[in-house]
Fold these 2 entries.
Entry 1:
Amino acid sequence: SQQGEEDPQALSIQEGENATMNCSYKTSINNLQWYRQNSGRGLVHLILIRSNEREKHSGRLRVTLDTSKKSSSLLITASRAADTASYFCATDATSLNAGKSTFGDGTTLTVKP
Amino acid sequence: DAGVTQSPTHLIKTRGQQVTLRCSPKSGHDTVSWYQQALGQGPQFIFQYYEEEERQRGNFPDRFSGHQFPNYSSELNVNALLLGDSALYLCASSSLDLTGGLQETQYFGPGTRLLVL
């Protein structure tokens, strides 16, 4: 079974609104990463947050990590139609497991123009 | 600077056949990981190659095997194909430095979509 679980499975918003996606995982981790995937193509890496970090920003993206609750959230502010995609969280258990990422089944985001 | 490339982009096989997928990592990367992504699901880790050897393996049967060449490119081989092997196969590259710390960011290729009939 997958380590990470994204919530919600699907999200539909209007352009300009904020989108929040959540991810929960089961075991301790070294880091957590968020990826975007357009229409079954390759994954694009968005942000990596380490287990000793609580928040990271990249442009319109904000990621939080709560290791006590084994959860993370991805916030996309001022969404655009081009943000329409599937978003996945992935975890690496330890630094020695780098590259052996465990993915959830993703959140499908639709941004309506 | 070329990113991760994969070939072929699409492939159709029949049950029982064998298939070989290829991946060239991003320039400067020495580690290749392979993932299988079924429709509507997240990617699942198959295995990882580093220094031409399998370094880590996921929960996949021995029908799935791989190879890494001296130039760091990699192949994924699947024998005795089953209908359930139909999926998008993703290759990801990264750079591992086991002495000086790890660079964990992986860069994914566009994938090979395999259909088994």
Entry 2:
Amino acid sequence: AQTVTQSQPEMSVQEAETVTLSCTYDTSESNYYLFWYKQPPSRQMILVIRQEAYKQQNATENRFSVNFQKAAKSFSLKISDSQLGDTAMYFCAFTSYNQGGKLIFGQGTELSVKP
Amino acid sequence: EAGVVQSPRYKIIEKKQPVAFWCNPISGHNTLYWYLQNLGQGPELLIRYENEEAVDDSQLPKDRFSAERLKGVDSTLKIQPAELGDSAVYLCASSFEGDRGYEQFFGPGTRLTVL
């Protein structure tokens, strides 16, 4: 069975600095998708960034980038120039064709950006 | 473009009472998901619809939970009777079949408190 693990329950970072959130996963499939979702205190889950496993190039969205290590089954999120609005719960998630799009989430990392 | 709409946002009921949640997905999205999110945890899938067909309901506690998606658009999730352990946030999400990246758009959720 596929599993997603986030080993950092809480993280904090100073405004304008860089922070990295960790995620590992376990799967026997070779073609799958990985996501980082952000859930602010208002609870609307928002997609931050997406990575297709068959792509070797790491995905980047403005200040957000990932370090995708397929062999190590690692998928970390780097937030550069952290802003107060980045304060939220961050969830790593996995899906694949075999899962039919069902997202398997990690436990989440609560990120606090301090002024 | 309107996002995923859920109602009510909050619901407080006594145990053993019935409760229903409603979801209106993004227009044109044929896939609809109901997730359960316990406090401090990542969401877990309850049921997935492809149009009006429930294609994955393996994690839906069918003795007390039921769901429907008439006409392949709006969906209702019902609990009868509710138990104390059902207190959680119920999230609805939708996606478009043509998006092979399985990006899902989430609603704000319904926070259920069972007393």
